[in-house]
Amino acid sequence: MRGFDTLIGQGALVRRLQQAISSGRVAHAYLISGAPGSGKKTLAFTFAGALFCQNLDDNACGTCRNCRRIGANNHPDVTIVRPETGRIRISQIRQLKDKFALQSYEGSWKIGIIIDAETMTEAAANSLLKLLEEPSGKAVIMLLCTSRSMLLPTIVSRCQTIPMRRLAKSEIADFLANEHQLPPETAIVIAGLADGRLGQAIEIASQENLAWKDEVLAVMTRREGQGLAALRLAAKLDAEPEAIEFCLRVLSSWLRDMLLVTSGCSQTEVVHQDRYPDLLALSGALNESVVMRAIRQVESTRRALEANANRRLALDTLLYQMADLTSFSPASEVYKYGKSSRS
User: Fold this and answer.
1) Virtual torsion, Cα 260, 262, 267, 268, nearest 10 deg
2) Rounded mean pLDDT, 295-309
3) All domains of the chain in start order, with CATH
4) Which of 2, 25, 126, 291 has the fewest beta carbons under 10 Å from its own?
């Protein structure tokens, strides 16, 4: 775990938390909201580290015993609550309350970090509400969620809200170029795919994801044998389903870039700036309605897969149709072939 300096573009939030620590006015509850990959967990764990750090007054050094234990999720005074089988249940909140009722092991702070707080059952949320209504001592609860509208208004009203800011593409691209030594042309594409979320950008920057991105775009830009290449990619994704969602995101971004180029947008406005000549060539042969239909087909296929449609059939149909954007079948025709037992 490193300090607040890792939270690129979140300077205002960082200063607010550091001032709270320095002034001794740390709130009993914080609600940190933002899209997946926006840095919520990094902020929460760094804030916890800053409260316990043995070397710095308002930051986490990342090297002292307390910082290392928090980074490894084994500090006795920091309790992490995560969904179990998709939900946070009342038994987990009761365990948190029991720990908060005890004296802290280190004689200082007690911290609870509730990840994906929007997954709390109604009973769990009501139990947490009682804990928030009766704050005591040096105790801090941090709730992490994608949107505060998904929580009880009574819970939100008892927390200081901290919305994570979406970063500009240039901020993410500069970080990737400087910290991960990526070529600028690669960094700006990843920044576009990340949609303002640094955590997502770091995940996309893995060699595995970059390879998947190149495979999807290779199919879309081939001049010959595109249909066969599409079916080969479908077979590969069927064998590695964990990559499907990312590949569909790449495909959607490519089609949206085509739509932008068809509408006359410049190179700086698209995600795949490094393939702008390909976008120009392909979009010149299509009208906006065809590209819009392709975008809808990707979304329909995503929904069909979420509904447990036959995965191989759905991928074959979608990717083969991408080889000829003028011939589509409705997604319902893919789904009607039945559900697959495979996930």
Assistant:
1) -20
2) 93
3) 4-163 (3.40.50.300), 206-335 (1.20.272)
4) 25
